[in-house]
Amino acid sequence: MQLRYLTSLDLDSFIKAASEVPYHRIETDLFPNIQVWIRRDDLLDPIISGNKAYKLLYNLIEATEQGTDTLITCGGAWSNHIHATAAAGTRFGFRTIGIIRGERPPELSATLQDAERFGMHLRFVTREQYRQRSQPEFLKLLGIDEGNALYIPEGGANLAGARGAQLLGKVIEATAPIRFDQLWLACGTGLTLAGLASSVTSLPVYGVEVLKAGDSIRRDAQHWLEALKSPSPACGGEVGEGGTGTPTSNLSRFPADFFLINQCHCGGYAKYPPYLQEFQRTFEHQTGTLLDPVYTAKLMYGLHQEAISGRIPPGSKILAVHSGGLQGRRGFEPTASNKK
Ligand SMILES: *Cc1c(COP(=O)(O)O)cnc(C)c1O
């Protein structure tokens, strides 16, 4: 398969790269009576992967505009966001500092080994300190001089991140190869869901919750949808052939209907019971498309459950977003020395 790279940090190049992400129709008996396609955002770039690339985009542009050469962010030992931020730092010339939850282990997770190799400075903090991460004085408490560095919250969850997810929705509207009936994705915080629901106006969005979140994903998604209503100058960029797309303010349905599937978290965040392992093996074997255990395996498992229960109208054409995260597979290999 052709390797794609994000080569320069500007909106038009990013939109072009995103517009070239392939859509694959998958052939498997796991989804009876419906047609399933996958948009392969895991292929956007080999190391700045999936929805984390979209969430970083406007943050990186903002950093450049501010003349900032340093990004500070935080996450856990297997964080896709830490990995993508470190990779973007080395690609586009930012210093990166990763604040990592927990003590530095004797052997780093594969994710953090990569992050260090990409040049990220890792700063390990206690779980207690980490809990302060949304406080304004978080960096000061850790004795980190913010200077004019850009602080990006865990997971890329800020308004700039939501605008990136919104851009993904615009790209989908502009590039979908057929008319779909439903759009599906995996939800951790619900930010990507909100971004998509704010810009995908022609079909309902379904989010599979990958953790036991109570009502918080719905609430957070609604929060980001509200925040996205305010226009932002950073949100320019037209999507469409040759940059002649329709004006981005012309949303016909805002937001799109969105629905959350909360019964397919398989026991909680990063829980990976044998039945999910078995499902993932079958899916990968039958389709040739790899998934990650934390997000996209649960997405496809949730879609499978809905399909076999008959809750999706027969003949429906479903588009599932492959949001990346494949680097995290290494955390689940039998030989891995680190567990979640
Ligand atoms: C972070 C992540 C998600 C969840 O995104 P949210 O915006 O937090 O809901 C989904 N898939 C993958 C692969 C991720 O890394």
TrEMBL record:
Organism: Microbulbifer taiwanensis
Lineage, top ranks: Bacteria, Pseudomonadati, Pseudomonadota, Gammaproteobacteria, Cellvibrionales
Cofactors that this protein relies on: pyridoxal 5'-phosphate
The keyword Electron transport belongs to this UniProt entry's keyword annotation: no
Top-rank taxon, per record: Bacteria
InterPro entries in UniProt: ACCD_DCysDesulf, TrpB-like_PALP, TrpB-like_PALP_sf
Record's protein name: 1-aminocyclopropane-1-carboxylate deaminase/D-cysteine desulfhydrase
Gene3D superfamilies assigned to the protein according to its UniProt record, in alphabetical order: 3.40.50.1100
Keyword vocabulary terms for this entry: Pyridoxal phosphate
Signal peptide residue numbers: none
UniProt similarity note: Belongs to the ACC deaminase/D-cysteine desulfhydrase family.
Tryptophan synthase beta chain-like PALP domain span: 33-324
